[in-house]
Amino acid sequence: MASKVPVVCTNVGGIPEVIEDGINGFLVPVANSSTLAEKIIYLLKNKTLSNNFTLYGYHKIKQRFSLQSMLDKYAEIYSDLMTMN
Fold first, then answer.
1. Strands, DSSP E only, in 1-85?
2. pTM of the entire structure?
3. CATH fold for the domain made of 8-84
């Protein structure tokens, strides 16, 4: 997403926190290579959807995972930890 390409991912770990199925990418079940292939081919054939995934995905990554965003989150965590004592 940060490289401005549409994504198709398996639905594991923290990936569903970033990928909204059908909004900024596709989530497919684990160990389901046929669905993975279908979704990739679908995106290759549907340039409008592919472009939308690229746009929405890049925006989400830039918003949630930019350097400034990550620094702000770390500062908040450290601040919370300091007030616990």
1. 8-10, 26-28
2. 0.79
3. Rossmann fold (3.40.50)
